[in-house]
Specification:
The complex is a heterodimer of chains A (292) and B (390). With 292 residues, chain A is α+β, with helices and mostly antiparallel strands. Helices cover 20% and strands 19% of the residues of chain A. Chain A has eight helices and twelve strands. Chain A has a seven-stranded antiparallel sheet with strand order 1-4-5-8-7-6-9. The two termini of chain A are 26 Å apart. The N terminus and C terminus of chain A are likely disordered. With 390 residues, chain B is α/β, with parallel strands linked by helices. Helix content of chain B is 30%, strand content 27%. Chain B has ten helices and 20 strands. The chains are: A alpha+beta (292), B alpha/beta (390). At the A-B interface, α5, β12 and α8 of A face α5, β14, α9 and β18 of B. β12 of chain A pairs antiparallel with β18 of chain B. The complex binds flavin-adenine dinucleotide and iron/sulfur cluster (2 copies). One iron/sulfur cluster (SF4) binds next to α3 of chain A. One iron/sulfur cluster binds next to α2 of chain A.
Chain lengths: 292, 390
C-alpha cells in the first residue's frame, strides 16, 4: 500500500508544521525542559511513565483527520478546519493504538515507559510483506529511514485500521524513543540509488503499468499527430492492458492535450468497453454478463 | 484555410485500404494526399482480427486476389519501419460435426485444385497444432499459407512509410463534397478546405456510400458489426490462427456451415481465435447488420464466450479484459468493390472488403496504384467491378 507521508524528518529540533505553535520543543531526558509548542509531547512524555500514550508527529496542514475519527476517547482533535494539525490529550488517551493504525502519514506512534530501566516501548505501524514476530530483533528507523539501532519486538497486533496494517511494539533505549518512526525486518541490499541500473528517472516514468509503457514513448507517439485518445491507445497500446486504462488514462489525456494543443475535453475519453473489470471467460459464457 | 491545397491523387480514408493505396502510389512516385475524417485506423482497420486467411476465400478470382496479396506481406514486413507482427503461422478451421467435416473436405479439394495447399486433419492429428480441443470437435482443415498480422500496426506502418515517401496525411479532415465537371473529378471539398485534384480514390470503408452520393453513384456498402473479446496476456499457446466452420458459413453464407442454434444464427456467430504478439487472445466474432452502431452487447459477449469454450475448453480459465466491435464495410456479395465509375473520370473505388480487408489490403493498394497511374491492372479486376450488382 502506498502511503502518503505526512511526517517530515525527525530532527526534533525543528518542526516544519506551522499550526498550533508547533515550533519545535523537544523532550529530553536529564531535566531539559520541553520548550515551546510541542506541549503535547512534553505531557505525553510524562504520562508515558504511567501508561501507553499516543504521540502525534503530524506536520503538514493537509485535509486529513482519520486520527480524530478513530479515537473513541476524544483524545485527538483536529477540529472544524480539517487542514489544522491534530492536538492530543495524553490524559484522555488509553493507548489503544487505533490512531496509529489509521494515520495515512504514519505520523502517530505510541510511547510507553512503564517498564523503566532506561528502556521504552514504542509502537509503530508496519505494512510490508514480511511477518514481524514477537521476540525477534528488528531495526528501528527514523522518519528518513535511517537506522537508529536494533530493538526487540515485544508485541505484534492488528489493532484497528486496515487489515494490512500491523502494529509493532519495539523495545528501544529511551534516547531514541521519540525518533523511532518505523521498523525494518530486512537488510537493505541496495545502498546507493546510483547502483540500480536501467532505472528510469522521474522524467520518464511508467504511465501504463500493464503494458509497461513509459512517458517518453507516449510523447513520441503523440508527436506523430494522433488527435484522439482512442487513436493514441491504438498506436501505443497504452491503456490497453489488464486494467483497461483505469490507472493511466488521466495522465495520458493530459500528456496528449499538451502535445496536441487541444483540451482534455476535446480529446474525449475513448469508448469504454465492457467488461469494466476483468472477468473469467467461463463466467461470461455461463452466467448473465450483466451481473458481472 | 487560406492556402490552396492540391494533390495529384487524393485518397479518402485512412484505414488499411487507404494506407495501402497511398503506400503503393508513393512507391511509384505519385503525389498523394490522404484525407481522414478521424484518425488513422479509427474505422474497421483498428477494430478487427489480423487473419490473413486463404482457406476462407472462394476458389476463383477471390482466392486469386488473396494469394497475390499474401505474397506481398513478407516484403511489406521488411520494408515498413513499424513491426507489423507478420507471422506465417498457418491456420486451422475446426468442424464440430461429420456434415461439416464433409463440407470442409469438399472445399479443401476445390481449393487444392485452385492451387492452395490445404490438408484435412482428424481430431487426433489436431493435437500437434492445438492444445486440447472440445469434445464436439471432429477434426479440421489446415492451411499452411494462412498467416497473421497486427492490423493496426499494418495500417499505421503503411501510412507512415507513405508519409516518408512524400504523402500528406490530413487527419480530422472530413470529405464533404466532390466537384465533378465535364465528367471529371476536379475538386474535393473538406472540412479543412478545398483540394484540387483530378484523381480521387474512395477508400472510405462504411463511409463509401456517402462518398458515392457526392458523385451521384450508389456504392452498395453497408456496415456489418463484428464483436470480439480480448483476454489477458498469456505465454504463447496458439500456434496458428483458429476458426470454426460456422465462421466460414456466416462469412460466405454457405447454408451447410451456418450455425444451427437460433441465437447464434441471429448474431452471425462464428468462432475465431488468434493470439496476438502481445500475448492477448482475441476471440470472435459476430456478423450483424445494425446500422452504424458499434457498441458491444452482453448477448454477443456471452455467446462468443460460450462458443469459444465449445472449441477450446481451456479458454474458460482466461480473464476477459476487454471487448470491442468494428463495422465491416460490406458489399452485397461480401467481395470488394474495385475499379472505376462510369461517367466520372478520375474516380476510383477501393472499398467493400467486408471481413477480408486486412488480408486483401496489399494487393488492393498495388492494383489501385496501377489503375490510377496506368489505367490498367496486372490482375483482372473486372469481377470486382461495381457493375456486377446491376
Ligand atoms: C470484428 C472484425 C474482425 C475482422 N477480422 C478480419 C480479419 O481477421 N482479416 C481481415 O482481412 N479482415 C478482417 N476484418 C475486416 C477488416 O477490418 C476490414 O475489411 C478493413 O479494415 C476495411 O478497411 P478500410 O480501409 O476499407 O475501412 P476502414 O478501416 O473503416 O477505414 C475507412 C476510413 O475512412 C474514413 N472515412 C469515412 N468517411 C470519410 C469521409 N467522408 N471523409 C474522410 N474520411 C472518411 C473513416 O474514418 C475510416 O477511418 C474484420 C473486421 C471486423 C469488424
Ligand atoms: S491511542 Fe487510542 S485512545 Fe489514544 S489517541 Fe490513539 S485512538 Fe485515541
Ligand atoms: S491521521 Fe491525524 S496525525 Fe495522521 S496525518 Fe492525518 S491529521 Fe495527521
Amino acid at each position: 500500500m502506498l502511503r502518503l507521508r505526512k511526517t517530515g524528518t525527525v530532527d526534533m529540533g525543528r518542526s516544519s508544521g506551522k499550526g498550533k505553535g508547533a515550533d519545535g520543543g523537544r523532550p529530553r531526558e536529564g531535566g531539559e525542559s520541553l520548550a515551546g509548542g510541542h506541549g503535547d509531547w512534553a505531557r505525553a512524555w510524562e504520562v508515558s511513565r504511567r501508561k501507553a500514550v499516543a504521540v502525534i508527529d503530524c506536520r503538514q496542514e493537509i485535509p486529513c483527520n482519520p486520527c480524530e475519527t478513530a479515537c473513541s476517547k476524544g483524545a485527538i482533535r483536529v477540529g472544524e478546519d480539517i487542514c489544522a494539525l491534530p492536538v492530543s490529550d495524553p490524559e484522555a488517551c488509553d493507548g489503544c493504538g487505533r490512531c496509529v493504525a489509521v494515520c495515512p502519514g504514519m505520523a502517530v506512534f505510541l510511547l510507553d515507559r512503564r517498564a523503566g530501566g532506561g528502556m521504552a516501548a514504542v509502537t509503530v505501524p508496519y505494512e510490508m510483506g514480511e511477518e514481524p514476530r514477537a521476540g525477534e530483533e528488528a531495526r528501528a528507523v527514523d522518519g528518513e529511514g535511517k537506522e537508529l539501532g536494533k530493538g526487540k519486538i515485544l508485541k505484534v497486533t492488528a489493532a484497528g485500521g486496515t487489515a494490512a496494517t500491523k502494529l509493532v511494539t519495539l523495545e528501544v533505549p529511551e534516547e531514541w524513543a521519540l525518533k523511532v518512526r518505523g521498523v525494518r525486518l530486512r537488510e537493505i541490499f541496495i545502498e546507493e540509488a546510483e547502483e540500480v541500473e536501467g532505472y528510469r528517472g522521474a522524467g520518464d516514468c511508467i504511465v501504463c503499468r500493464c503494458e509497461e509503457i513509459v512517458r517518453s514513448e507516449v510523447e513520441e507517439t503523440a508527436g506523430h499527430g494522433f488527435r484522439s485518445l482512442a487513436a493514441l491507445r491504438r498506436a501505443s497500446r497504452v491503456g490497453l492492458g489488464y486494467c483497461q486504462g483505469r490507472f493511466c488514462l488521466e495522465p495520458l489525456r493530459r500528456e496528449l492535450a499538451e502535445k496536441s494543443g487541444r483540451t482534455v475535453e476535446e480529446l474525449g475519453f475513448g469508448s469504454p468497453r465492457p467488461p469494466l473489470r476483468p472477468v473469467r471467460l467461463s463466467r461470461l459464457g455461463g452466467g448473465d454478463v450483466r451481473d458481472t | 484555410m487560406s492556402e490552396i491545397l492540391s494533390s495529384e491523387v487524393v485518397i479518402i480514408g485512412g484505414g488499411v485500404i487507404g494506407a495501402a493505396t497511398a503506400y503503393f502510389l508513393c512507391k511509384e512516385g505519385a503525389e498523394v494526399m490522404v484525407v481522414e475524417a478521424e484518425d488513422l485506423a479509427s474505422g474497421a482497420s483498428g477494430a478487427c482480427d489480423g487473419f490473413v486467411s486463404l482457406q476462407t476465400k472462394m476458389p476463383g478470382s477471390h482466392l486469386k486476389l488473396a494469394l497475390e496479396s499474401a505474397q506481398l506481406f513478407p516484403s511489406l514486413a521488411e520494408d515498413l519501419e513499424v513491426d507489423i507482427e507478420y507471422n506465417p503461422c498457418g491456420g486451422i478451421m475446426l468442424a464440430t460435426s461429420q456434415e461439416q467435416m464433409k463440407e470442409l473436405r469438399a472445399r479443401a479439394k476445390a481449393l487444392k485444385s485452385a492451387g492452395l495447399e490445404v490438408e484435412m486433419l482428424s481430431a487426433a492429428e489436431l493435437k500437434e497444432y492445438l492444445p486440447e480441443v472440445g469434445k464436439t470437435v471432429k477434426g479440421g482443415s489446415f492451411c499452411p499459407g494462412d498467416a497473421q498480422v497486427n492490423p493496426i500496426s499494418l495500417t499505421l506502418g503503411l501510412a507512415q512509410k507513405a508519409q516518408e515517401m512524400g504523402a500528406t496525411i490530413l487527419r480530422g479532415c472530413r470529405v464533404e463534397n466532390i466537384v465533378v465537371t465535364n465528367n471529371r473529378v476536379r475538386e474535393v471539398h473538406t472540412t479543412a478546405g478545398n483540394i484540387h485534384s483530378r484523381r480521387v480514390v474512395c477508400a472510405a470503408g462504411i463511409g463509401s456510400n456517402q462518398i458515392g452520393k457526392m458523385i451521384i453513384v450508389d456504392v452498395p456498402v453497408l456496415p456489418q458489426r463484428g464483436q470480439i473479446l480480448v483476454t489477458e496476456q498469456r505465454d504463447p499457446v496458439l500456434k496458428t490462427i483458429v476458426s470454426g466452420a460456422e465462421y466460414l458459413g456466416t462469412k460466405a453464407n454457405i447454408p451447410e456451415l451456418l450455425p444451427e442454434d437460433e441465437e447464434a444464427a441471429r448474431l452471425g456467430l462464428g468462432f475465431t481465435a488468434e493470439q496476438a504478439a502481445s500475448g492477448n487472445i482475441l476471440l470472435g466474432s459476430t456478423r450483424e447488420f445494425v446500422g452504424f452502431d458499434n457498441s458491444t452487447t452482453p448477448e454477443a459477449m456471452n455467446a462468443i464466450a460460450r462458443n469459444a469454450m465449445r472449441f477450446l475448453p481451456w479458454v474458460e480459465d482466461l480473464d476477459v479484459i476487454r471487448s470491442f466491435a468494428g463495422l465491416r464495410p460490406c458489399s452485397p456479395d461480401g467481395l470488394p468493390i474495385l475499379g472505376t465509375v462510369k461517367g466520372v473520370r478520375g474516380f476510383y473505388l477501393a472499398t467493400g472488403h467486408a471481413g477480408d480487408g486486412i488480408c486483401l489490403a496489399p494487393i488492393t493498394g498495388k492494383l489501385l496504384s496501377e489503375l490510377v497511374l496506368d489505367g490498367e491492372t496486372s490482375l483482372d479486376i473486372e469481377p470486382f467491378s461495381l457493375y456486377r450488382f446491376k
